[in-house]
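Minutes, methods subgroup
Present: GH (chair), OT, SY

1. OT presented the first of two proteins processed in the latest run. Sequence and structure tokens recorded below as shown on screen.
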Amino acid sequence: MQNDPLAELTDYICPDCGGALSKRDGANGTQGDGQGEYQCRIGHTFTPAQLWIKTCAMRNRALGAAARAVAETVDLARALAAEARATGNEPLAARLESDAQSEERYIRLLLQMLEDLVADEPDTRP
């Protein structure tokens, strides 16, 4: 659709590959059902409903990855705090413990956000 004069480049990304999406209005769609469609450069094609569902799933995966990354940061901060304590660097250990506690709050916020979003998730049938 990238070289298609009937398609318009959007500001949206493909939830499958991250590429730019172009849009065709319903009159020019390939499905012949009058519904608009979105397509990326390599051919991933979505109806508006499919695009919304896949984009929500992409967002949820990103939030899950963020929660995991923050959890790993907590573990690292605690391990480094123990090392600092073992070498007598109590100021660094205290700072790292404080940072770990802050990061734990971020994990709770991310997980609560993800839980709320999943509860409100659109019907997964296109």
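2. SY then presented the second protein from the same run.
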Amino acid sequence: MPPSKAPSAPPLLRPQATIMLSRVAHSLYWMSRYIERAENVARLLDVNLQFLADFQDLSDTEQTTWGPLILSSGQEELFNKYYKAPDSRSVTEFLAFDLRNPDSILACVYAARENARMVRDQISLEMWETINELYLLLKEQNTAAVWAAGPQEFFAKINRASHLYQGLTASTYSRSEGWEFIEFGKYLERADKTTRILDVKYHILLPSATDVGGALDTAQWQAVLRSASALEAYRRYYVREILAWKAAEFLIFSDSFPRSLHFCAAQIDDFLRRILGESGSRPRSPGARASRRLLADLQSLTITDVLNQGLHEFLMDVQSRLAAISDEVAATTMFYPAESVLEDQQQQQQQAREAGGAHCGEQGEGRKEQDSILTSERDA
């Protein structure tokens, strides 16, 4: 009688050496999100300052100049608590240096550095040095010093540091489970920020509906594209003048531009399936199903469908779905008890986003009129 075989161990979804602790996944995920967030806020501030320089007849204290940045960030209540009115100095202070704002550039870089410090043995030396140097740069700055030296150069340094970090991460980090959390966090944050960049235009009401398609409207849409680093890519794709519905279509549905919602949703779905071990054609977990539904919607909808629904309403729905995916993944893979104040910051940010989602504006009818005009323009 042949000897019986010893029962084999159940197969692992990935090699045992690459299975990581929940706290490590948590820190890598948020390190990536915070760096991406800091870059997007810096670019948004920089573009708005350049827009004011191009249109010098616009008032620096005009509500439609700086107010939309606060509204789209979801931090309107917090801003009004500490500042009287939105202008270049107050909004720059709030979005760049105010640690009371958990989404400020300084708060994001501090949080990214703290997360990187907690997993210092898991990341490369080059990644740590880049984050630490950015932290030291911001630690020495304040609003007065930035305005004295020129804010454009300051924001450019933040963008370059973020690009350097991402390039070094791609060049020095092993394609392991940690890489999946880093990329998943980056694209989730990028998709969320693209919706907020588009939503800035929603909060800017033109003097009248007849100004839609005019010089000011075109310049505003050009600023939106620049805020997403999409202006050159848009011009290569469409060649001709900037049209509102084409700009919105490009930032939502492009399958080749790396900051469009469609591209980001495809990356989110891919990395999420890897993280959750989803190998079948039908997703099993709630997070994977939510991700697949979002991707399917972006693959099947058209810009006409979005404008008929309302651009703002569509963007708010995408934001809530991204937040639900983030919460589901956190509950599934990053479930350890809080070990630092960073999780408290994340809860505050989520509450602020939900509060921002409830803001419909007192001028909804005017915006609906603009949406209908955009639809007519697209059909023409």
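Chair's summary of item 2: Residues 40 and 159 are 8 Å apart (CA to CA).
Next meeting: continue with the remaining queue.
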